[in-house]
Structure formats: C-alpha cells, structure tokens
Fold this sequence. Notes:
Blueprint: E1 7-11, H1 17-26, E2 30-34, H2 38-46, E3 51-53, E4 64-67, H3 74-82, E5 88-91, H4 98-105, E6 112-115, H5 122-132, E7 139-149, H6 158-174, E8 180-185, E9 194-199, E10 208-214, E11 216-228, E12 231-235, E13 242-247, E14 256-260, H7 266-278, H8 288-304
Parallel strand pairs: 1-2, 1-4, 2-3, 4-5, 5-6, 7-10
Antiparallel strand pairs: 7-11, 8-9, 9-10, 11-12, 12-13, 13-14
Helix pairs in contact: 1-7, 4-8, 5-6, 6-8
Amino acid sequence: MRVSAARIGLVGCGRWGRNILRDLVALGARVAVVTLDDATRADALALGAASWHPSLAVLPPQDGYLVATPTVTHEAVVTALLRRDRPIFCEKPLGHDLAAARRIAASKPERLFVMHKWRYHPGVMALRSLLERGRLGRPLALQIRQLGWGNPHQDVDAATILLPHALSMTLHLLGGIPPLREAAALLPARRDGAVFARLCANDVASPQVLLEYSILQPVQRRSVVLVGSTATAELGGSHDEALTLRQGGPGAAAREEHLPLSQDMPLRAEVVAFLDYLAGGPPPLSSLADELLVAERLEEIRVAAGLAGG
C-alpha cells in the first residue's frame, strides 16, 4: 500500500471532506483538520485526524492543503491559504462564479490545483486511452449525461455543481472545451432543474459535444459516450465494471466488446496524485488554466440557459 508521511491541512470535513480525510489517513498522511464546530471536530478525530483546529489562524504550517468547504467559501479560504506559499488542492469549482475564479487567478498562484475527480475515473481514463491509441478513429461526438433527483448543495445551484464535472471530462477527453453554440433549460419555471448545452467549433471536422444534466430524474444515471469514425465507446454508469465498445461507424451493425475497468476510486486516485506531487512528482490534473476554461464555459452556459447570476 502507498504510504505518505506528508503533513496535510484539510479545511472542511463535511459530507465530502470526510471521504478525503478517510483516504488521506489510509495513505499515511498526518492530517490537521480545520472546521468551525465541535460536532465536526469529533467526527474528524474519530476518522483519524491527527489534530483539529477551529480556524486557519491557529493551524500550524503544513506541507500542503486541501479545501473541502462549501463552494461559496472557496475564494476566501484559498485566498487565505495562498499566503502560506504551499501547494493547494481545492475541490471544484474553484469559485462560486467566474469572477471569483478570476480574482483568485489574478495573483498567479503556481501551485494551486482543482479537484475534478472525473478526470481520474477509470472509465474516463479508459475512454481517453482508446482515443489516443486510435481505436475509435477520429472523434465525432461526445455526449455526457448527469441525471438524478435533487441537489444536496444548499449554497449553489445544480449547474454550478454538475456542469464542471462534464466540462472537465470534455477537456480531459478532447484536449479542450469547444465554444458554446446553444444552451437551454428544460422547464422555464425551474431553469436550474435540467439544462442542455451543445458545444462545437466552426469547422465540420471538429467533434460535437452535448451536455445534459437534470435534478428532476427519479433514477440516477451518469453516462459518457464517445462516438468515433470507426468505433463508439460508452461508460454507462459511474460504477460500471466495463466499457461497452462497438466497432464500426455510428449506428452500423457491429460487434460489441466489454472492456474491464479498474475499480479504483477516483477520489483516492486524485489524493494520491497530490501526495505524489508533494513528494516531488508531477503536478495533479486541472491546473489554474484548466479551471479558468471550465469556469468560462460554465458561465456562458448559465447565461444562455437563463440561469440566475449570469
């Protein structure tokens, strides 16, 4: 098992922060947790935190920092941590809107990265490998659907939480995020409930990208379909054990294959990447430049779909 002796400051230990703490502890890191209440303090210590602190002001220096606080607090927390001049890995999105992300970027932090876990998902990584090895031919289209019921985040709407996943996957698979062509909400009376967006470059040879999310879908589904000129591959669900690959052009009668996937958890993989970086390895995925591109497209989709705050 991989073991790290790094000293990590984890700011936030709520619903998702607990998972980050679990993986940090399992990987051998010594974790100092910052939260604001005694109930979370008890949870953090029970999960293996080495220490608990009621504010950043009293947190001793660490080798690196992870931020897992509510989205609307990311800007303030990251700005405070940047003064410590150590690597920071912040949960996505970096800011609650494009302006916040740009304010953070204005200081040109070189060791700030954003935790887009789907870039570490075995299925997304396998899709990229198929494309890079030429097994799909020329990419023609990418379709990403994120369907489920409700939004557990009280501070921001569903678009702010879900679309960064889809946009970061687009970046990971295609090497960029095409310009937005159109976006619309499914229900005018509930614009944040379901949104469709189409992205593509002007030339006909570039792949089309169709993104869809809904928090009005009774059955949860996460799917990624990559259509190539010679084959199409699909990740049908976040916990699928295999990719489905169909040889031949789109819609043609073709042989179906099932390509086994690793069952490694993407969160653990990105935590490992950050710990390796602290030990002198390569930087984790999703640089500040990547995050600004995601934030720009997110803002464009929100405006086009008529979401508040655009």
